[in-house]
Amino acid sequence: MRRLLAISLVALLPLSNVSAAQAQQPADRQQAFAAAAEEFQVPESVLLGVSYLESRWEAHAGLPSSDAGFGPMHLTDAAAFTTSNHHGEGEEDARGDDSRPLAPPAEQPAPAEIPASLRTMERAAALTGESHERLRTDDAANIRGGAALLADYQKALGAPLSDDPGQWYGAVARYSGAEESGAARFFADEVFSLIEEGAARTTDDGQRVTLPAVPGLEKIEKWLERLGLRQTRPDGVECPASISCEWIPAAYQQLPDDDYGHYDLADRPKSQKVDYIIIHDMEGYFLPSIRLNQDPNYGASWHYSVRSADGHIAQHIKTKDVAWQAGNWYINAKSVGIEHEGFLAEGGAWYTEAMYRSSARLVRYLALKHGVPLDRAHILGHDNVPGTLPTTVRGMHEDPGPFWDWAHYFQLMGAPLHPFGGPRSGSVMIKPDFATNKPYFYGCDRKNPEAACPPLPAGTVWLRTEPRQDAPLVKDIGKHPTGESLYSVYDHSARASTGQRFAVAERQGDWTAIWYLGQKAWFHNPADAPTAVPSMGLVVTPKAGKATVPVYGRAYPEQEAYPAGVPYQAVTPLQYTFSAGEKYTLAGPAATEYYRAVTFNLEDHQVVRGRTKYLEIQFGHRVMFVKADDVQVTFSG
Hints:
Blueprint: E1 6-9, H1 20-23, H2 29-40, H3 44-55, E2 69-70, E3 75-76, E4 81-84, H4 120-128, H5 132-137, H6 139-156, H7 169-175, H8 181-197, E5 199-202, E6 208-211, H9 222-226, E7 245-247, E8 253-254, E9 260-261, E10 263-264, E11 276-281, H10 286-293, E12 304-306, E13 313-315, E14 322-323, H11 329-333, E15 335-340, H12 353-370, E16 379-381, H13 406-412, E17 427-430, E18 460-462, E19 495-497, E20 501-508, E21 511-516, E22 519-524, E23 532-534, E24 537-542, E25 548-550, E26 577-579, E27 584-590, E28 593-596, E29 606-609, E30 614-618, E31 623-627, E32 631-636
């Protein structure tokens, strides 16, 4: 969701003189962890565990995280960034109800100060003698900086530089940068759980790193008292007990001229079932974005915010109420919105492991509470939400974007995206290897928007008109009525993303064609490095005798369903159709409902339910709806 505060790099610091310690730094990342642990007398398992929770041991080619963190140890250098308003995404109406349109929200000022948790690189530089440049771009130097910080925190706590990992619980909690005791404890608990279990993976630049398990590890419980980490949970916060949550309420207030802001009271799930959970990024930092949610005049709201560095969560709106978050009133009325600190592209190419873990637990908790299926047809990115009318399609948002790791996210939810079916299955699930899949994009640099983005891991594949690499991208007549799809990081017109399921239209060698927005769309899918996996299931196709089928951005009732006093909401098809012979994967039935909520008082609100049956399908990059009477449902094996 578009917020504020995109960040751009300023001039980097010059390289300093290289010390003897710097000259001896190993090139191998595993060796770098071992060397830094020995130099600063930090247990190697602790150093590896902290790094995994921050970056999964990735160097990210020296690019910053969503909150200005660099390298395997996520050393934060927000002081080296400037802030500016962000204009990358579409200008959607977050409420998405054309019966009462909102003006675009006003841009907000930048924060007056940068918290210490976003400036850890300064201390690391002082402790190691490394320049900011090397701490950003040299992973061995970055690991030294993180080890030095851990040792510094341990000394500040009056604790020994012990080789017993359990003695380092307090320093690990401090490393999170969290001011909230629950957030610091969540981070430390996750690190020590990982140390007990062990881990191993190959990073996106080919580095194999292993953390051997340390079973039977006992944390020193005194740190819980000494650091005030005895976790207490505010009454009424809707979060699992294992993560750090607080209640920071969004503004709900009567405004002049019978207006109000900036969400709607409801009584879900009694009034309506929650069917979707929407994943956003803030296009900004945690605290300034939260302040927007406390402004009743700001034209958007959301239920939860997730902080990048440590996974801390703030809940703003009860899940029974409807936030103005997804740009589609039908989806808003049936969803919960979760904002994540970060940026789709500009200045922030990756999200921390702590954020992924905390958010995944929240989503699993909410999905179980509300009966939301853990699949990509119901756990949607903001970029998967359809426009409501032909006129709103172009302005819909694109976050969290191609750099969100959906496969890892679902793994953490306990709902991995597994293949289902044989190699010639009639449907496929998009699932490129995130670490090695680095498609071309441009638009990551605001100051040079035409420049190519650096090669970055992504969970998306490009879709072409023919089975060859130089073929044009398929077109999206809603996003670009008279033009071509773009390779912009902000344009998903010709992209399919991890977890999305599509019916197969054709296969030729290493290429697979799927049905997408009423056309065949080809993507490279070689057998030795597949970018999709088999996925059997139900599909829809036009009923016999129907030449074309319209699609819709919302499943609104027929006119006869509206009681007196409730204006009819027109059932308007979008600009897309599909024809006989085409097939689209079925997500399931969609409730035929309209939530009438245009006043400050809950007593005036009501749900209009119709008899028309709708089905949700994966039509393009976004989900859409068809009338059941227009299609037949078949099994694609």
